[in-house]
Write a structure and sequence with these properties.
alpha+beta
Length: 421
């Protein structure tokens, strides 16, 4: 959103570490594809073996049958490795630490969780839900103090595994390692996806409070964690679904965040509600009956919904009038656009321009004329040129838009590029 671009491999290093020996052996850039495809096949087989027999055909269909996950695997997505490692963690998860003993099986699951967190950041969001669920189930069985030891040991083994995978890279340059690790979360990438952010990206002329989508996503995550703690007997069977819901409210709300983890949804079939019957839940006075519980649940997610409403209802910060300069008649292309931009806010803005046809934004357009910063309640004229000097107009049934973005605060303003201008 701030006008630059990220070229960093901003993911935890496990997938790269697995791909390195394959690349050294085969001398091909397809090494990452081979690793992720192999991980998907291994995860599919693992899920097939662990699921009850009636569900096994669904495992094959979800993992391989629809072409979505194989497509991500062919592209070398690190999340596929994380998914494969999370499958044994999620299947029959209430049995972890049964009797107060982590055992070899529980330790192996903890290692898988730590390795998954060292493969892709989506696994980070699953971990706290799992720890809450483990504590609640074990406390219902063992009592408070012994129950706390089980998720503590589980988390400790997972953390040591994660640290071991990351140790070399952290030692080489801690600041660079930490920056790259957090980059997908902190980079303020341009809006993209199928969540609520689409209101400001597709249906309105923009928003001056895009940050509130991020606040909404964070608040929803916290609210869902709290709801899981309060109502684990009801929500425990959805433990593999809840972590990804917060992305529906984020500025980066891509379908991959949900689709790549669908095998974990199927893993929830191994957790019947009877396995959570005696799980511990906090006792809150007067919190009895479905109406009261529904009220509490709504209260937990209401702050997130309010923030999403603020973001989607806020007007764009810039009012833009465009004059389009074209070349060619049979196949016209945009060579530059003159933008008269009025800052309607009380904050100085540093706009950066791009175009979009559909959901993907173009490379940044070059500002050849106009101030770098637009003062509050002022108007300026910009001349912007597309990357490469020209950009072809789409066909009659598609539209091209010019978007103006700022990183701090996060805002977007949109205006249609008209061929007749």
């Amino acid at each position: 959103m701030s006008g630059s671009a990220d070229y960093t491999y901003g993911y935890p290093p496990l997938t790269a570490l697995l791909a390195a020996p394959v690349h050294a052996l085969l001398h091909t850039s397809a090494a990452a594809t081979l690793v992720t495809t192999g991980a998907l096949i291994a995860g599919t087989v693992t899920l097939w073996l662990l699921l009850p027999a009636p569900w096994r055909s669904a495992a094959t269909a979800v993992c391989l049958g629809f072409g979505i996950l194989p497509g991500y695997a062919r592209s070398g997505y690190p999340a596929i490795v994380a998914l494969a490692l999370l499958i044994p963690v999620a299947v029959y998860w209430p049995t972890t630490g049964a009797g107060g003993r982590l055992g070899a099986s529980g330790a192996l699951r903890a290692v898988c969780l730590g390795a998954a967190c060292a493969a892709q950041q989506l696994a980070w969001f699953f971990a706290p839900f799992l720890l809450i669920g483990l504590y609640a189930v074990r406390r219902g069985e063992l009592g408070a103090r012994p129950a706390a030891a089980v998720p503590a040991r589980f988390a400790g083994v997972a953390a040591l595994t994660w640290a071991a995978v990351n140790a070399y890279f952290a030692a080489q340059g801690f600041s660079a390692w930490l920056h790259g690790l957090l980059l997908p979360i902190t980079q303020k990438a341009i809006l993209h996806g199928q969540g609520l952010m689409g209101i400001s990206y597709y249906f309105t002329d923009g928003s001056s409070r895009l940050d509130y989508y991020s606040y909404a996503s964070e608040l929803l995550l916290v609210g869902l964690l709290a709801a899981t703690l309060l109502f684990v007997r009801r929500l425990g069977t959805a433990l593999t679904v809840l972590p990804w819901l917060s992305f529906y409210l984020a500025t980066r709300s891509q379908d991959g965040y949900f689709l790549m983890m669908t095998p974990l949804w199927l893993a929830a079939a191994t957790v019947p509600s009877s396995a959570l019957t005696h799980a511990w839940q906090p006792r809150i006075p007067r919190l009895t009956g479905r109406p009261a519980k529904a009220t509490v649940a709504m209260a937990l997610v209401t702050p997130a919904l309010l923030c999403a409403c603020i973001a989607s209802a806020s007007p764009p910060p810039l009012r833009m009038a465009l004059t389009t300069h074209l070349t060619g008649r049979s196949h016209p292309a945009v060579t530059s656009v003159t933008v008269r931009a009025a800052n309607t806010t009380g904050t100085a803005l540093t706009p950066h321009f791009a175009s979009r046809v559909g959901q993907g934004a173009s490379n940044w357009w070059t500002i050849t004329s106009g101030p770098a910063t637009l003062a509050p309640h002022s108007t300026a004229v910009y001349v912007v040129r597309p990357a490469g000097g020209h950009r072809a107009l789409p066909g009659a049934h598609r539209r091209m838009y010019l978007i103006a973005l700022t990183g701090t605060p996060m805002t977007i303003s949109t205006a249609r590029i008209e061929a007749t201008s």
